Amino acid sequence: MAAPSVVVIGAGQAGSDTAAALRSQGFDGRITLVGAEGVPPYQRPPLSKQFLAGAGGGGDLALRPASFHAERDIEFVARDPAVRLDRDARRVALASGRTLGYRHLVLALGARPRRLAVPGGGLDGVLTLRTLTEAGRLRDAMRDTGRLLVVGGGFVGLEVAATARAAGLAVTVVESGPRLLARAVSGAMSAHLLAEHRAHGVRVLLSREVAALHGDGAGRVREAELAGGERIAADLVLVGIGAVPETALAAGAGLAVDDGVLVDRHLRTGDPAVYAIGDCARFPDPRTGRPLRLESVQNAADQARCVAAALCGAPRPYAALPWFWTEQFGLRLQIAGLGTGHDRVVTVGDPRTGRFSLLCYRGERLLATESVNRPADHMITRRLMGAGAPLPTPRQAAAPGFGFKEFRQTAAV
């Protein structure tokens, strides 16, 4: 009998971690890792921060040593994206014409930046940031410009804004919603980040939309026109208005998709031989049961380990606690849990000191902790939530002198 084979489509964090976890968990069959880019797997978070600021080259971002795949008998296929999936034959066709057979297939397809669909959106100097190539273009462009417009007040947009401002560029952020990071953090944290950006000289416009981009005679962007008529001079535009999950390969093969490839709590699609993980996958939230799609390193890495365990004969439902982080102007924000639907926020610490945590509750239940330069609060929250241990009530958290370290001792975790 032929050795079992696993083909992993997508060589980002999720795909690379799947291949690595399969070997570390004892899988001895064939593993093929297929990537669309021409470089080995690399870290994406630094693209909007350290890399953009000029620290190091692409090689410094490598997820693993250059010899990793060969030493573990993992075939890495670069610059040859999958274009067609035949589930009946259990074969994947690549752009080069090569086909790969599999016993199990892991779709780690990732997501692509959402484009700005306005007149002038295709002008030179209008960029997105998702890949190393795109980050290189943005970094080069920043060296030759003085005015950056960031469209979108999400994580990527704000990190780029902070990096560019630190490099001396004049930066304007235009956000269509009423606050920054509205889908990710509490209103109080949005307000704190807004104040930080404005204090560092970033012009932030909320509840405003870009209606058009205008260029010079050579086809390069020179200004943005907002709905209402205001014009903003810009030599460079970074579009950071979210990402669209890559689902075409799955949909073309008849798999269910809806804002992602739909999977069950074991991260399986409707085909038991096919799994989907990472940014492209929409899975049942283990806490609420509602469909959820997350774009984070934590989610990619934890789902990779979960699928690897299943393929090694130890299946378990995916139940990892979501957590996130961002760095802007020396501020390190760490989020444990998901605060969606919270109705109360308790502040621990003093925001004026730049070290505090916001605890997001729905009723008496702690949903998430948002910590600014208080890593212990973040780690303790993760440990308590992950263990299913008692969590501080709103009354406990609001009591004078409350501290997570002392609370953890009483919880004995």
TrEMBL record:
Keywords: FAD, Flavoprotein, Oxidoreductase. InterPro entries: FAD-oxidoreductase/Apoptosis, FAD/NAD-bd_sf, FAD/NAD-binding_dom, FAD/NAD-linked_Rdtase_dimer_sf, Reductase_C. Gene3D superfamilies: 3.30.390.30, FAD/NAD(P)-binding domain. GO terms for molecular function: oxidoreductase activity, acting on NAD(P)H. Residues 323-406 form the Reductase C-terminal domain. Pfam families: Pyr_redox_2, Reductase_C. Residues 5-304 form the FAD/NAD(P)-binding domain. One of its GO terms (cellular component) is cytoplasm. This is Pyridine nucleotide-disulfide oxidoreductase. It comes from Streptomyces angustmyceticus. The lineage of its organism: Bacteria, Bacillati, Actinomycetota, Actinomycetes, Kitasatosporales. The gene is hcaD_1.
